[in-house]
Design goal:
By secondary structure, the chain is α/β, with parallel strands linked by helices. The chain has two domains: 122 residues, Rossmann fold (3-Layer(aba) Sandwich), CATH 3.40.50.2300; 70 residues, Arc Repressor Mutant, subunit A. The chain has eight helices and eleven strands. The strands form three sheets. A five-stranded parallel β-sheet has the order 2-1-3-4-5, sandwiched between helices. Strands 6-7-8-9 form a four-stranded antiparallel β-sheet, covered by helices on one side. The protein is elongated. The relative contact order is 0.10. About 3% of the residues have low confidence.
């Protein structure tokens, strides 16, 4: 697994590295919250630990946005002090937040994180069968069609992930925009990216059999197992 530790405290980093550096884990390191952005889109991260003793609003806003960009990544935020409103906002976004005071709690929470990423259900779905001859390689950020690998840029990956992990569920255009882009993006962008993905999986845009559009409802992924 690929794990990223963000910390300005060398001792905390050493403790985290010692605990998590097992099996085939690759441990990456950064000092600022925004260092995590360097890996977003380049490498799939199974987990990120943000060691932020006294987090600023800017750092917390970044964590929320980062989680929305990488929904499959487990994120743990370790703090010494945090407001209830800030904590609630982070938890709502899908992050795990823990106050590590006294310091002995730090190791305890790292152990919890290690268990989370090891048993997380979503992490077990490394490859998802979409249809005969079509497989979605979640960690590889690619589609495998009849043995041929087709890489997916970040937006296409995030969009297709929603469909692949929620087969037959209809997503409205607004839901897709909120999950992949933001409220300022025009709705036409969704149609354009759906078209790009259809081409990559060999789905006829005029008569699609996999990525289906239901008039007045939205889009969904139909599979041969439905």
């Amino acid at each position: 697994m690929n794990l990223l530790i963000i910390s300005k405290n060398n001792e905390n980093f050493k403790s985290a590295h010692k605990l998590l550096n097992v099996h085939e884990n690759e441990i990456l390191y950064g000092r600022e919250a925004r260092d995590a952005e360097l890996y977003c889109g380049r490498k799939f991260l199974d987990g990120v630990i943000f060691d932020l003793p006294y987090p600023t609003n800017e750092e917390m806003d970044f964590c929320v946005k980062y989680k929305s960009k990488t929904p499959k990544t487990k994120i743990m935020i370790l703090v010494l002090e945090i407001s209830q409103n800030m904590k609630a906002s982070l938890i709502k976004s899908g992050c795990d937040v823990f106050v590590v005071d006294p310091p002995s709690v730090y190791i305890e929470k790292l152990s919890t994180f290690s268990e989370l990423i090891g048993t997380s259900k979503e992490m077990k779905h490394e490859k998802i069968i979409i249809d005969n001859g079509i497989i979605f390689d979640v960690k590889g950020w690619k589609i495998i069609k009849n043995g041929k690998s087709i890489s997916l840029p970040e937006k296409e990956y995030r969009l297709f992930s929603l469909f692949a992990e929620n087969k037959e569920r209809i997503f409205t255009t607004e839901e897709l925009l909120n999950n992949v882009w933001d409220e300022r993006t025009e709705k036409e962008r969704v149609r354009q990216y759906i078209s790009k993905i259809r081409k990559k999986i060999g789905d006829d845009g005029k008569n699609p059999k996999l990525l289906i559009h239901e008039n007045g409802a939205g889009y969904y992924l139909k599979t041969n197992k439905s």
